[in-house]
DNA sequence: GGAAGACCCTAT
DNA sequence: TAAGATAGGGTCTTCC
């Protein structure tokens, strides 16, 4: 058998550990990659040893040997070789000798049982709850982008041209199994290498392949009527339609997945609809044959062998849902376009139609509705071709959405800056991203890796950020300043880390003492904390990416600019997740004092500045956690609205200059080592009705925009006439036209009272949870809600379901309030988008009341209150002017 | 009529 | 491998 070496660069999509039945002293890691030039590669990596680290809690850094018996450990049949002396490591604030123990297998029955036994014997066990694939990236300091060289085991039709195609496949399959693999993986190229030949590579944009699909199903019987799929290979799209028996449809989709070999699997609502439905229907179609089921839903990037399909229970080849959360499809990444749209856009409503409309408002063809989804059986019987067109369109839109939102490059950038696989960046949790960086740094710095804290029940909350009271009314000429990366900066400057926390009471060598609880941290000379070190590195790398971005932009290098912008943004996201993880109760490197000290310093810094400003006679208008709004002392009569010319314009310009100057000056004055205050924006006017976290501002520098925070305008559970009216009122108020704002409120309330407003402007939409009850085959709500039927959104969800429309836990459901006199109030679900028909009849009184209340909060800050507004709505003719105070 | 509680959504 | 945090506003139902 000839042997061919191949060298390449690739991005790791995901990886898995595979136990090696023939030789339990070796391990094999599967790395599913997409190469820089677009080939899919399964890289089989040998040479990694699963291990556990132990230390004796009764020893200290002077001990050479533990009190517990190392011999006993050596003699355990699960242990491979002698314990390896590691010297002293830091654990729980204590230096003490540690040993590494190689374990014969990472399989549960060896590894976890050994871990348990050692722990029971009295050892402190560390480094023992991390997947081997993550260990691989950590121990060899790899990120998702790697270069490697290794032996080609098998080459398929889409392999690089230079590599001869494999002819003796069955022989090769056997060879692959002998080195720990599963056989002939459905990829372009199968390779084999040792860990030592893997190296970190510079990030590049990987040409991923994406598969999008959509099922149309019977409302009556749940079976699949037809399906469509699109493969996107570097922008080139291949569309497929599937009709026929349910089995044929699913087999067709599965063949396409296995032949086209996509990295990402998308669709609209696949997590909660299309994937679970495929699983259900494949089981239903062939309950007694796993291999039949694999032909219908064996989407994992694994060979369809007996072993991978499974004998008694489903094997790895099947997509699987983990704890009702994310789906796992070995070697591929499920990426639901619904969830991406929801996360990045926060749309008011979440139907595919609504989201498409939001993204492409002027393209009718993208959202033309012609099929009534609630009558799918009838539609399919009467006009199958139209149904198929509709189905195809719904597979293309998710791809367009992911493109538009840049979802995939964002995941890849996050993977790159957190040095994880793309799968971990995509579907993992924030603590996994942070683990990836912290654990590898700890390993290099003699710090042991504690296991995740598994205590249940809520611990006492720590105090959070400081929020300043706001006075109702308008203020003109406000400079907004904020701290640059406040929490990370505090962690860096005060050396806050579990490795620097002083746990005992003696007071020597202390440099940093938190202002309230007097928690103490080592000076930087004694030891630089792991996390501060890491955060500083991230801050530097963000600056580097930002610089590279500007340089690329100047050079007209669009791709380079895009890549570096994604990377700098990913660093920002990652840095911002640190505080939360370290303030959580379960994270492995957390101590309850860490989170509390961070916010203590934050509150101390900001309140200190506020009181200094006030002492100097400045009016601090507002402040939230890391921001301060300061009023410039400018003559009261300077117009807030930019005049078109004349002396007023000069006065306006000079007020603006003064605000800019103040902003710069204060930023300089209050910036100190480790707490950089930046001048962020200048406002010509600021308004709040007097509630924290609710304000608006007319931004005039560095760009011009209307800034709105907290108000109904920002909320997805507001209705559009309220949001629209309030926005317009804010515009007027910030220009100084209070009367105009009040008149607007009055006229809109009158219109609503008289029923002159489109019902679609009155839709309220809120998210609704629910869980699927397998027994009854129904969605149930009483496990989640104390009194579900009194909640309008639950009743709206039930109405949707009863009309044959899809429901997904967590989805937003729209409704109209039809009777506010009864309790609970009467509502009707908003189904016009999906099934057309007459809209429900709204209760005008309800909407008048809510508008009066919300808008009245605003006008009352203008000395005009809710009751007056409501009276006005009832009888506008009796009051000539309400602006008389 | 008003307090208490359940729940949603947002700011940072 | 279950899992970022707290502060805060607001609506509606239930209960007295």
Describe the structure.
It is a single chain. By secondary structure, the chain is of the alpha+beta class. The strands form eight sheets. A six-stranded antiparallel sheet has the order 21-22-18-23-24-25. A five-stranded mixed β-barrel has the order 1-2-3-9-8. A five-stranded mixed sheet has the order 13-12-11-14-17. Strand 12 and strand 13 form a beta hairpin. Helix 14 crosses helix 19 and helix 17 packs across helix 20. It is globular. The C terminus is likely disordered. It binds a DNA duplex (12 and 16 nucleotides) through helix 16, helix 19 and helix 26.
In short:
By secondary structure, the protein is an alpha+beta fold. The protein has a six-stranded antiparallel β-sheet. The protein has a five-stranded mixed beta barrel with strand order 1-2-3-9-8. The model is unreliable at 876-885 (pLDDT under 50).
Throw out a few tags for this protein.
5-stranded mixed beta barrel, DNA-binding, 885 residues, 27 helices, disordered C terminus
């Amino acid at each position: 058998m000839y042997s061919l070496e191949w060298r390449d660069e690739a991005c790791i999509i995901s990886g898995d550990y595979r136990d090696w039945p023939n030789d339990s002293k070796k391990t094999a890691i599967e790395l599913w990659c997409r190469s820089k030039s677009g080939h899919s590669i399964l890289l089989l990596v040998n040479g990694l040893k699963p291990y556990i680290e132990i230390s004796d809690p009764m020893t200290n850094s002077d001990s050479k040997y533990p009190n517990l018996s190392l011999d006993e450990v050596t003699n355990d049949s699960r242990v491979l070789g002698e314990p390896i002396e590691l010297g002293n490591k830091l654990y729980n604030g204590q230096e003490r000798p540690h040993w590494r123990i190689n374990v014969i297998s990472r399989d549960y029955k060896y590894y976890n049982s050994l871990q348990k036994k050692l722990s029971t014997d009295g050892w402190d066990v560390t480094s023992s709850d991390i997947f081997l694939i993550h260990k691989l990236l950590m121990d060899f300091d790899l990120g998702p982008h790697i270069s490697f060289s290794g032996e080609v085991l098998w080459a398929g039709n889409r392999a690089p041209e230079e590599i001869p195609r494999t002819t003796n496949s069955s022989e090769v399959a056997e060879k692959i199994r002998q080195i720990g693999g599963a056989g002939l993986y459905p990829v372009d190229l199968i390779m084999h290498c040792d860990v030592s030949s893997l190296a970190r590579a510079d990030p590049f944009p990987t040409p991923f392949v994406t598969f999008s699909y959509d099922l149309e199903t019977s409302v009556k019987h749940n079976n699949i009527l037809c399906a469509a799929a699109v493969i996107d290979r570097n922008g080139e799209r291949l569309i497929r339609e599937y009709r026929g028996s349910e089995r044929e449809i699913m087999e067709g989709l599965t063949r396409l997945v296995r032949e086209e070999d996509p990295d990402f699997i998308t669709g609209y609502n696949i997590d909660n609809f299309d994937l679970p439905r495929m699983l259900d229907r494949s089981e239903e179609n062939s309950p007694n044959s796993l291999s039949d089921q694999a032909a219908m839903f064996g989407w994992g990037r694994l060979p369809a062998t007996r072993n991978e399909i499974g004998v008694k229970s489903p094997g790895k080849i099947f997509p699987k849902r983990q704890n009702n959360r994310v789906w796992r499809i070995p070697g591929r990444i499920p990426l639901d376009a619904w969830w991406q749209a929801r996360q990045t856009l926060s749309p008011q409503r979440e139907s595919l139609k609504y989201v498409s409309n939001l993204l492409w408002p002027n393209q009718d063809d993208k959202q033309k509705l012609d099929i009534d989804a609630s009558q799918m059986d009838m539609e399919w019987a009467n006009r199958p071709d139209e149904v198929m067109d509709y189905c195809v369109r719904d597979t293309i839109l998710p791809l367009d959405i992911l493109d538009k939102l840049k979802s995939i490059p964002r995941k890849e950038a996050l993977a790159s800056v957190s040095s994880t696989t793309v799968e971990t960046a995509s579907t993992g949790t924030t603590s996994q991203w942070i683990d990836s960086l912290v654990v590898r740094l700890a390993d290099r710095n003699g710090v042991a890796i504690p296991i995740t804290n598994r205590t249940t029940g809520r611990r006492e909350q720590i105090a959070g950020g400081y929020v300043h009271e706001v006075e109702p009314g308008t203020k003109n000429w406000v400079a907004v300043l904020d701290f640059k990366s406040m929490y990370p900066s505090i962690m860096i400057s005060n050396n806050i880390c579990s490795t620097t926390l002083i746990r005992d009471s003696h007071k020597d060598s202390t440099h940093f003492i938190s202002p309230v609880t007097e928690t103490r941290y080592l000076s930087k000379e004694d030891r630089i904390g792991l996390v501060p070190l890491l955060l500083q590195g991230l801050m530097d790398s963000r600056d580097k990416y930002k610089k590279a971005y500007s340089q690329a932009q100047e050079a007209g290098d669009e791709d380079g600019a895009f890549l570096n912008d994604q990377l700098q943004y990913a660093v920002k996201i990652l840095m911002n997740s640190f505080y939360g993880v370290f303030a959580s109760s379960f994270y492995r490197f957390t101590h309850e004092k860490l989170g509390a000290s961070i916010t203590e310093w934050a509150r101390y810094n900001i309140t200190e500045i506020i009181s200094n400003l006030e002492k100097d006679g400045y009016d601090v208008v507002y402040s939230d956690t890391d921001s301060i709004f300061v009023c410039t002392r400018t003559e009261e009569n300077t117009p807030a609205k930019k005049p078109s010319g004349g002396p007023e314009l000069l006065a306006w310009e000079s007020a603006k200059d003064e605000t800019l100057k103040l902003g710069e000056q204060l930023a300089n004055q209050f910036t100190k080592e480790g707490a950089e205050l930046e001048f962020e924006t200048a406002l010509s006017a600021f308004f709040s009705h007097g509630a924290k976290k609710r304000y608006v501002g007319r931004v005039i520098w560095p760009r011009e925009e209307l800034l709105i925070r907290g108000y109904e305008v920002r909320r997805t559970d507001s209705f559009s006439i309220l949001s629209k009216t309030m926005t317009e009122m804010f515009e007027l108020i910030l220009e100084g036209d209070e009367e105009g704002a009040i008149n607007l409120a009055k006229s809109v309330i009158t219109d609503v009272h008289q029923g002159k407003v489109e019902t679609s402007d009155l839709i309220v939409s809120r998210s609704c949870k629910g869980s699927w009850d397998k027994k009854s085959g129904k969605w149930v709500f009483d496990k989640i809600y104390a009194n579900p039927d009194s909640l309008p959104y639950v009743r709206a969800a039930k109405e949707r379901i009863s009309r044959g429309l899809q429901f997904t836990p967590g989805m937003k459901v729209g409704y109209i309030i039809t009777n506010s006199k009864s309790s609970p109030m009467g509502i009707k679900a908003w189904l016009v988008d999906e099934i057309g028909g007459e809209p429900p009849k709204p209760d005008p009184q309800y909407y008048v009341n809510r508008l009066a209340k919300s808008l009245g909060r605003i006008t009352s800050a203008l000395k005009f209150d809710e009751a007056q507004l409501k009276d006005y709505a009832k009888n506008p003719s009796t009051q000539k002017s309400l602006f008389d105070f």
